[in-house]
Amino acid sequence: MAGNSGTTQATRGNHNRKALVAASSRLVNRPQLHGHYNAAKAGAYQLTRVCAAEWAGRVVRVDSISPGHTLTPMTAPAADDMKNAWLANTPMAPADYQRAVVFLALDASSHATGHDLVVDGGYALW
Question: What pTM does this model have?
């Protein structure tokens, strides 16, 4: 993503373009032990910041979203006790992330770049 597509968008003269990386980069997954997975997600956040710094001069904004646990094909096979732990550690009810994506795409966030928007229902509070 960072190497080709973003650079192409930036050099076309399109202003206020947005590249969005979705990564749960701010949370430590528990109760499972996945240090390698967490480190990779944190790298996605750092990539967001680096791209924001490098592309800001071309008026390209780059932000990311750190969602809470989400049911995906990767997480669906998890044991019920693990899914229950994720829910128990999330103070607010699970929700969709569409509004967060829309906010970052709108002019309302036109001065935001390099930002990671945590939309996790409070999971990272613990």
Answer: 0.75
